[in-house]
Every structure is written in structure tokens, then in C-alpha cells.
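seq as requested:
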Amino acid sequence: MEKTKHIHLIGICGTAMASLAGLLQSKGHRVTGSDRAAYPPMSDLLRSLGIPVAEPFSAENLQPCPDLVIVGNAISRGNVELEEVLDRRIAFTSLAQVMHEEFIRDHESLVVAGTHGKTTTTSLLAWIYEVASRRQPELAPSFLIGGVAENFGTSFQLREGRPFLIEGDEYDTAFFDKGPKFMHYFPDAMILTHVEFDHADIYRDLDAVKTAFRRLVNLVPRRGRVVAFDGAPHVSECVARSFCNVERYGFAPESMWRMTELRHQDGQTRWKVLRSGEAWAEFSLGMAGEHNALNATAAAALAAGQGVPLDAIVEALATFRSVKRRLEVRAVVDGVTIIDDFAHHPTAIRETLRALRSAYPQARLWAVLEPRSNTLRRNVFEKELVESLMLADRVVMAAVYQSENIPEGERLHPEQIVEALQAAGRPAELLADADAIVKKVAPQAEPGDVIAILSNGGFDGIYQKLPRALEERTAGVSGPARRG
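C-alpha cells:
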């Protein structure tokens, strides 16, 4: 885009789309957008940037006519704005195409891919480069992350340094490009955190997912590097035919970046890393969970191999402040801690609950789940979902989000999950919506409880409603807390 343009984003409140909007504004373009409904944290980000968001979708949102429309990958034929774009032959493109052409092509492309851990790992990597750039300005990172990195207070940044860091999403690109977005990013080096079946709405089976990741690995040049988790056989399959060096990280004795002595104490996760069998570093991270230590090790390994000094890596991990909606403490009211986590898959739920067990070992742990992602709304992982939720002391499930959009034969039936949990001796309930959940949970929560709210959406405002109900209870409106 050789000159300033008016660029309109359909579906602007998606995490990546909102970040792209900020990047485009940073380049001087006039940016507008629209969405069905806006919710934090991206609605807050766009408001802070002064980027107008029209709700809901409407053909009128295209007046005056933009120079270019970017169509989000959640937008499909039948959307009134998309139909207007096609009818009027307004120029349109996808997020991934714009990212490659406008931001990545002239930088060192560092891509973080995998079924789990992408957002946190990309945020860690960005902070490592940011800390290193204080002494070496050429390392100042540009980035796009699928969440708000708390060290930056944003999900994007445009700098003059060499690297561009991007979360490599395996989801499809747009209604006119059904390939994964990450195929547009052409990594010079990459991280592969995990590979398992996900996005059941677009991938036929696990083999289709593995094919996508194999193709990404195949884009890395011979001079590049792939830093790959050592604890998943599917990852091994995906990197087996790489033309560049593959460096494994994790707990395996033969891995190049081997983690040892992992422990959680005094609110910190601490561990050591051996590099090619030799003592290399000792790290501290203010986040609970083995999965977060693995994410941090992957980021450290990629950065070190790209020439980032070790002292900057150590400092960055010790000062990392997490990502919004990743084990985020939203409120502590009357001793009850409310956690927000972007749960999208049974494995992610399991690791979140394991991390909370580590961080709050004495707490009664609640899991409040809204099946909202395209994977969780389907019945493909019913058994795994039950196993993950068994890690909580109490489970409350909401109805499946927009269940009518999922074919009956594929749809998750949460009552079956609740029945399976109850049969295994775990207290569990199915409630219709956020209001019913708040009405049930608030009177029963006790000081010392941890309530993990698990959803990848707005969950009808439960993140505000539950703390408010607890505050009213504390003030005497609802009476004293009691065990249910």
C-alpha cells in the first residue's frame, strides 16, 4: 500500500484483526471496522486507539466507500457487508495476505505455531526481544499476537528492528482462501509447541492437521531453524522431513534444550535448562504451570539461537507479566479469586487447571465452562473433556454457545458431560446461562476458593457479573457465604 488509504475490517474484534487494525493505523492509514458484537479485551484496545467499530454488520458501514476491505476469517458468504463488497466490486483481501505484503516481507520472520501455547509463547518471545533491544536497537521487535501482552499493554507493535514476531494460526485464512493463515508468513525460524486435533469445523481429522503443520515446516529455508517440543509424537512427525536444523526442547534427555529441576514456589516457577547437555541457564517465571515453563523455554531457545544474549533472556522471563485471558486474575472479592482463561480445547483446560492446582494448592477449585470454540461445541472430545474437568473440585457448565449452528450429530451435549462427572463423584451442574451461573455460584463461593471461568468469548458478561454479585453479598445484600 504505497499511500494512505481508508481500510475497513469486517470482523475487526477478532484478536488478530484488532491487532492488524492497530498496525495499519501505525502506518498512517485511516482504519474503520465492524463486528456483530464487541467485547474485551479487543474492544478496549480499539477504543484506546480511537478506531471506530460499527455494530452490527450493515451495508451502511461501507459508506463512504473504503479503498480496501479486509475480510476476517470468521466472515462467510451471506454476511451483509461481504455481500455488499462483492456486489460493488470493492477491493478486498485477507489478514494473512496483508501481514505478509505490508509487514513481514522485509523483516526476519519468526513464527510461533502449534495447537496450544502460541499466544503466551509469542508474547514471551516479544518481551525477550524488547528487553534485548535496550542494548541492541536492531533487535527491537515488531509483532502481532493473538492476545494482549501485559508487558506491552497491546497485541501489536511496529518498530524499526530486524525481527517480526507473529503467532502462526493454523485456522483458515478467509472465505476465499481456505488454507491456514500461517502459510503466508514464510518463517526464517519458527517454534512448534504442540500438534493435536483441533478446529473440527475445518479439519477433517488429525492427519489433516499434521499435513498443515508439515507444510509450514517445509517453508523454513535451509539456513533457518525449527524449535520443536520433544514431548509429543505428532510434533516429531511434522518436523521429520525439515530441510533446516530442528532443535528439540522439553524434558527428554537427548533434547538440545533440556529442562530440569522444575518447581513452583513463592509464586514463581523456577527451572534449569541444559544446552546440548551443558549447563546453560536458570530461569524464573511469575506464572504457574509446566506448560508455561515449556512455552518460556521455547521462546528462550529460539531467541538464543537468533543471537539474543542470555542475560536479556533471563531478565525478560523474570519480568514477564503474562497475557490477558491466560490465567488472568480478574478479581479477588471476599477471599474468592476469579480467574479468566481463554479455554478452547480439553488439553488447554487440563493444563489451566493443573497450573491453578500448583499455584493455589489449598484452594477449592471451581471450573465454570462455556463450550464456545468450534472444537468444544462438538462431541469429538467428550471423553477428554470429562477427564480435564475432573481436575476441578466443582464444575459448572453453561449451554453450548449457538448450538443451533452445529449439526445435531456433531453437537456436544453438556448434560452428558455433567452426568459423567457426577458418576465419577465430582459435583457438577448444567445451568442455562451466565445469569443462572452467577445466581448459583455467588452464594456458595467461600473465602479461599478459586473460580476458573473458561471461555474463548465474552460469556455474556460473567467476568463482571460474578465479582459484582460477590461484592453485593459481602455488603450484606445476599447474606453470608455458605457451603453449598
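Confidence is low (pLDDT under 50) at residues 478-484.
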